[in-house]
Amino acid sequence: MLATAFVVMAVSWAVGAFGPLIGGALAGLPIILGPGFYFLAAQAPAGFVAQTAAYALLSLCATQCFLLCYIAVAAKTPPWLCLACAVSAWLAAALVLRLLPAHPATGALLFIAVTAICLRLGRRFVLPRSPAKGKAGFGLLAVRGLLAGTLVAAVTTASQWLGSTGAGLLLAFPIGYSVVAVTIHQKLGTASLIATLYSALLGTASLATFCAALALAAPRWTADAALATALAASMALTLGLVLRRRYAAAR
């Protein structure tokens, strides 16, 4: 619960401090997925954890559809209606993706293809950025973050009865992105929101890296070693994205 609150406040602060490009990259850190899989690994066999991570990787393909849908409607639609449209897009994609085989290679290739398509389609919606309307208040962010964290805790608990398919899809549900999107949309404006979510399309690759690495490592190593490896791979990719964008901005 506290992890979600932290990521919402950290990303909103990062957008104001460093701009939406870096804020979107930081949004892809597994601050929400990580604790969910940590508790799952403590009470489930390695095979179940690996298969759940593989389905979570497929779910992240649906997350890209979520981000693209929000980006597409953000300019002319109120934040909460944007969120409803984006969640509907995620649900439609997830219902199809759950029928696919849960294999890290399949999920990784599909994620790369979906991300490339979403980046291409989403580029046309990016707007010139104007100065932010204001900073999101700490109290408001804390309330929204704690609410989202409560939902994450509930999903993590319920996932034990859903099987690896339902657990993987729901653990990767974009709760954090939902709260981040609505908060930035309301407080920093449409242009900053679209730029942040467009950047998050690449940032989500860090989450995909975490899931793919965990799916491969969980059956072979101890739970702690598999989680540490997945986290290190994810953070390395996030660091690379941030450095790349800072270098590009400095040129």
Question: What features would you describe in this structure?
Answer:
The chain has 251 residues and is mainly α. The protein has one domain (2-250). 80% of the residues lie in helices and 0% in strands. The chain has 11 helices and no strands. It has helices at residues 2-18, 20-26, 33-43, 46-73, 79-97, 104-122, 138-158, 163-171, 175-188, 190-217, 223-250. Helix 1 (2-18) packs antiparallel against helix 2, helix 4 crosses helix 5 and helix 4 runs antiparallel to helix 10. The longest helix is centred in the first third of the chain and has 28 residues, at 46-73. The protein is globular and about 50 Å long.
Number of helical elements: 11
Distance between the termini: 39 Å
Total beta strands: 0
Shape: globular
Helix content: over 70%
H/E series, N to C? HHHHHHHHHHH
Structural class: mainly alpha
Strand content: under 5%
Cα-based radius of gyration, to the nearest Å: 17 Å
**Average of per-residue pLDDT values:** 84
Main sheet overview: none
Low-confidence blocks of residues: none
Number of spatially distinct domains: 1
